[in-house]
Every structure is written in C-alpha cells, then in structure tokens.
Amino acid sequence: MPRVEIAVPFQDNWYFDAMTEGIAARLQEVDPTCTVSILAERPGAPGRAVVADRFDEVLADEDCVGAIAIGFEFKGPQVPRLTAHGKPVVVIGGWCDGLPSVTVDDERVAREATQHLLDLGHTTITHLAGYALSPDDFTMRTDRVRGYSEAMREAGLDEHSHVVPCEFTHEAAYRAAKELLSDPVRPTAVFAVADELAFAVLEAAGDLGLEVPRDLSVVGVDDHRDAASRGLTTFRQDPAVVGGAAVDRLLGRTEADHQVLRCDLVERETTAAPRTPEAPRRSVLDRLLRRRSPAVG
C-alpha cells in the first residue's frame, strides 16, 4: 500500500496537527489508497539528523512514494542522500536548496505586522520572538526578527527595537511577557512570533491589570483556531492548505520548486492606537522629579 512519510517537530500542536490532517485529506482526494506515517518519536523536536536518517530509511521502501518534512531544514550531504532515492521530498516552512518547498514570506509578515502597529501610532514595540535561532528548523524566527527590525528601522525607531527570545511554550512566553510588562518603561505594543505566544502575552497583561488594547496592543501570526474567540489581531495562514499544497507538489500536480503562500492581516480587538504612547516613560520621569523637588508651603 503506498504511503507518504511526514516529519513534524512537535506533537499535540494545533498547527502541525491541522497541517498533517490537511496532508492526509489531500492524499485521500488524489489517491484513496495512500496512507501517511508520522515521525514524531517523542515530545519535542526529533532533530534534523534523526529526520534525515529516518527519511533515508523509509524512502528505500518500495511502498513509500515520498516524504514531507514540516519545519526541518536539510543541509550539506543530507540533501543528496534523500534525493538519491529518486522519490520526491518536500519541505514546509522555508527554503532548502535542492528540495521543493512550501512556505509563507515570514519576513514580509513580520514587517507588515510591525507596520500595522506603527500605523496605529505605536513607537515602543517589542517582538516576542521565541528562540531567534534553532539548529533544527528553518529561519522562520530569524526572518520574522528581520522583518520586525526593518520596519522599526524604516520608521526611524531602530534604537527602540527590542527582541525578547524565549522558549516556544505558553509557560515560557507568559514568564517573558510578565517580566516585560512589569517594567515601568514597558512597550505599548507586542508583536508575537506566533499566536500561542500572543495568548500568553494577553494572559500576562490581564494578570498585571493591563487592558488590551487600551494599555497594550498585541499582534500574532497564524490565526489559531482560538484567535477569533480571543479577539486576537493576527496574520492568517491555513495549515491545512499549506499541507495540501505540499501534497500537490509531492505528487507532481504542481511544478513550482518554491511556493510562497499568502498570509493576510486579520484585524480584531487586540490592536488600537496607543492611549498615551510615552505614558510609562513620563510616569517614571515624573516620579523622579517629585522626589527631587522641594516641598512647597
């Protein structure tokens, strides 16, 4: 029975679950006899080397018609090892020399997310970036840091750029956001690298008594299935559509080696013009002046 091997970096993750479901659904449309096998050996990322070894093994199986790697970048000798089997290998999430890919323009998304906040009048915007560098995934996070930084620089606010890295979990993002928002000189807006991290920012803001968007604007990326119910302004991408596009390339139904899908702004209730953009900074200054001023009367 023909099958397609899929590698995902995280288990029990809405985005990757939706993407693998989209892959399976598209395969069923094209070839009802085709099945999928998912490589996710343990919670967390199995690692690029593990994925390359596994693909090398399964591609040698006559039943395997191809493989799809979600969020893994193959480098050096890994690519010719995989292509030597003469079967298609498609990567999702970035560019990979020698292999076809399906992705979104992460740099553009970040630039437009930051520009949305700038257009509203925000000047102190922090980017909650997850880990800016990861050895086992594409440059999604660094591309989004680049897009954010470019928008800030073009607005003449490069000196106010603030990138906060953290582990890509709700708990880590909550801790980072709470520390960031507890600072007397806090930002008036946060651009989070993904909606899951944006949700943590909203929770931290609420626990600190900040009102969104009156005191803080928040933008995410992905349009998580819970984004609408939380009123989150975000950039929409449909992981099932991404997975389906990868299947079409895998089965030769499309020919583009690098397909870039759109990711559009969905404006909801978590962004607005800043009430007083520099209020936190002035508040600190006022307290210092009061301490130094002599009592009158």
TrEMBL record:
**Regions of compositional bias (Basic and acidic residues) in chain numbering:** 278-288
Report residue spans for region: Disordered.
271-297
SUPFAM superfamilies per the UniProt record, alphabetical: Periplasmic binding protein-like I (SSF53822)
Keyword Transcription regulation listed? yes
What keywords is this UniProt entry annotated with? DNA-binding, Transcription, Transcription regulation
Q: Name one GO molecular function term.
A: DNA-binding transcription factor activity
All copies of the Transcriptional regulator LacI/GalR-like sensor domain together span 114-271
**Highest taxon above the source species:** Bacteria
Pfam families named in the record: Peripla_BP_3 (PF13377)
Record has DNA-binding as a keyword? yes
Annotated protein name in UniProt: LacI family transcriptional regulator
Taxonomic path: Bacteria, Bacillati, Actinomycetota, Actinomycetes, Micrococcales
